Amino acid sequence: MEQQDYLDEELRRRRARAIEKRRLRRRKRMQQLWIRRGIIVFSFVLAICGIVKLAQYIGSRGMREAMSESLPQKMVLDPPDYQVDLLSINAYSRPGLAIEEVNGIVVHYTANPGTTAQQNRNYFEGLKDSHDTYASSHFVIGLDGEIVQCIPCNEISYASNERNSDTISIECCIPDETGAFNQSTYDTLVHLTAWLLGRYDLTTEDVIRHYDITGKICPKYYVEHEDAWNRFKEDVNQYINENGVLEESLAK
User: Fold this and answer.
1) How far is it, in rounded angstroms, from Cα 196 to Cα 149?
2) Could you give the CA distance from residue 196 to residue 87 in angstroms, rounded to a whole number?
3) pTM above 0.85?
4) Which of 19, 199, 218, 244 has the fewest CB atoms within 10 Å, i.e. is most exposed?
């Protein structure tokens, strides 16, 4: 009887272990099922959010395009005063290569506080002898609002990496390490940018920072202060609205 009792007890233990194993397997399967369901639901929500965002973007873009087509377009005819002091054609700052089509305006800062537009232009010129780097810009705006043109607008400059081939570059001098433009430099930049947009049939959506191309912190203040950058583009639009003429009036 004792042996039979032992066998019966062992059988019960085995059945209990088997039942426990089945219970654990069921729990694991249920957990895996809920995880899969959670992933499916999460993916579905992400997809819906993506579709909504895409629809909003397409709608807002379409609205902007429709508004731009329906509203009279203005352009600034008169550029700010500027001095033409072109760089010598050389491999390091003025390669003499043509821009086929201008699709954007890129704003930079000189990163050397207190220097003038002419000094920065002369630095670009000196690269043909020093061979230190490849660098230049179409325009340099100084601390008094003066402009020096270094490269014709129908040639590329070495300023904006892969966008050299289709953009006009503007370097801005700075008074201190913050990288903020003083009022004279800022006002000239607004005017110059507004004029270039009209000249090449662009909008402020086509005005970008060096940062937007490569991630380089340039122009420093307007990378660190996104609100100031947006305000700059608003000021350009305001300048065009206040000082531009309707395109339709030019055709008459």
Assistant:
1) 13
2) 21
3) no
4) 19
